[in-house]
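hi! just following up on the protien thing from before. the input was this:
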Amino acid sequence: MAARVRLRILEGSYAVARLQPSEAIPAWADGSGFVSISRTDEELSIVCLQDRIAPAVKADCDWSCIKLQGPFAFDETGIVLSVIEPLSTKGIGIFVVSTFDGDHMLVKESDLEKARDLLVQAGHSFI
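and the predicted 3d structure came back as:
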């Protein structure tokens, strides 16, 4: 049986920003709302409320953030899959970020209502 997850839509419009891998983490990255900062050899990615991102920064905007209400154990399987599968099979693009205690999923604001309906139909609930 697929996992049933409690979900919460976070307030605000989010964006995923891309900076050069050698750049310092900018001051605007930190603040209220969900924030995720990841660095690889190819890029520095920052997810945060979009109104904080400097205009000159390359960013993909207009995302809604859905929090998967954890915490989830590291060995608990199928949590993320149970949430992304009903969306990806219906053509809704997602961006997932995991933290120590849980996961966050971004969907385009224009897809939020459809995503919510699909997730409820799949047995998940919103709080």
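Residues 79-88 form the longest helix (10 residues).
The helical segments are 79-88, 112-121.
cheers
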